[in-house]
Write a structure and sequence with these properties.
Layout: H1 3-17, H2 24-32, H3 42-52, H4 55-60, H5 63-67, H6 74-95, H7 104-115, E1 122-128, E2 134-142, H8 152-161, E3 166-172, H9 182-196, E4 201-209, E5 212-215
Parallel strand pairs: 3-4
Antiparallel strand pairs: 1-2, 1-3, 4-5
C-alpha cells in the first residue's frame, strides 16, 4: 500500500468514527479523493479554504471561479457543486418550514428516518415554532446499545438555538420493546418542568422501535 493509499484509508476511518467533529479542511480533502484518485488532495483543500474564506465560500463559488485554482479540474467542480445541490435538497426535505406538525402521525413520518437502521440508542429533538411549523430536527445524544443519556441542558440549548416554542423529544429502544421505562417517564417530567421555565412546551416524548412508535402522551404516561 502506497503512502497516499494508507493516508486515505486512515482519513476515511477517522471520518466515519467522528463525522461531527471532522474539520472542514479534512472534509474537503476527503471529498476531493473522489475527483483525484491518486494525488495528495490536502494542499488543494487548504487552497480552496484560504482562497474562498470558508467551506460555505467554497461551495458557493461558481464553476469559473473554482477552475482558476491549481488542482481543480472538471471532476472536482462537478463534485463540489453536486454536494451543495444535494445538501440544499436534503435540508429542504428534512426541515421544510412548510411542514406543520399537528398530530403524532405527523411527527412519526418526520422522525422515522432518523432511527432507520440505528444500532445504538439515539435521542433527537423535533423543534417547532408557535404555530407548530417545523423548524428542524437535531440529534441531542447517542448512547450505547442499552441506553442513551438525555440531559436537560443539551435539550434546552438545542431548542433555544432554533428559537423553538415547542418541542417533541424522541428516542429509540434497540431492545425491540417500545414500552416506556421508569427512566423515560421521569426524564419526560423533568424536561417538561425545565423547558416550561424557558417558555418552551414539551408536547410529547416518542419511543421508536423498528417500524413502530409509542407516544407517552397518547398512552397516558405524560400530560403536556
Amino acid at each position: 500500500m502506497g503512502i497516499h493509499e494508507g493516508h486515505r484509508k486512515r482519513l476515511k476511518e477517522e471520518f466515519l468514527a467522528r463525522p461531527d467533529s471532522f474539520p472542514d479542511h479534512k472534509a474537503l480533502e476527503l471529498l476531493l479523493f473522489y475527483a483525484n484518485p491518486r494525488g495528495d488532495t490536502n494542499p488543494t483543500a487548504h487552497l480552496l479554504l484560504d482562497h474562498f474564506g470558508s467551506l460555505a465560500g467554497v461551495l458557493d463559488a461558481t464553476p469559473e471561479e473554482l477552475c482558476k485554482l491549481s488542482g481543480i479540474g472538471e471532476h472536482a467542480v462537478v463534485l463540489l457543486k453536486t454536494v451543495k445541490e444535494l445538501s440544499g435538497r436534503y435540508l429542504t426535505n428534512r426541515s421544510s418550514v412548510d411542514n406543520i406538525v399537528e398530530t403524532t402521525k405527523d411527527a412519526f413520518h418526520i422522525l422515522r428516518p432518523y432511527f432507520f437502521g440505528a444500532r445504538n440508542e439515539i435521542a433527537v429533538l423535533l423543534c417547532l415554532d408557535g404555530k407548530h411549523k417545523l423548524l428542524g430536527v437535531r440529534k441531542v445524544y447517542e448512547g450505547n446499545v442499552n441506553a442513551v443519556a438525555i440531559t436537560a441542558r443539551k435539550v434546552a440549548e438545542t431548542a433555544l438555538s432554533l428559537n423553538a416554542s415547542a418541542v417533541i423529544l424522541a428516542h429509540n429502544h434497540v431492545s425491540g420493546l417500545a414500552l416506556p421505562s421508569v427512566e423515560d417517564r421521569s426524564t419526560t417530567t423533568h424536561l417538561k418542568h425545565m423547558l416550561s421555565q424557558l417558555t418552551i412546551a414539551l408536547i410529547d416524548h416518542l419511543i421508536f422501535v423498528d417500524d413502530d412508535m409509542v407516544s407517552l402522551r397518547d398512552s397516558g404516561y405524560y400530560q403536556p
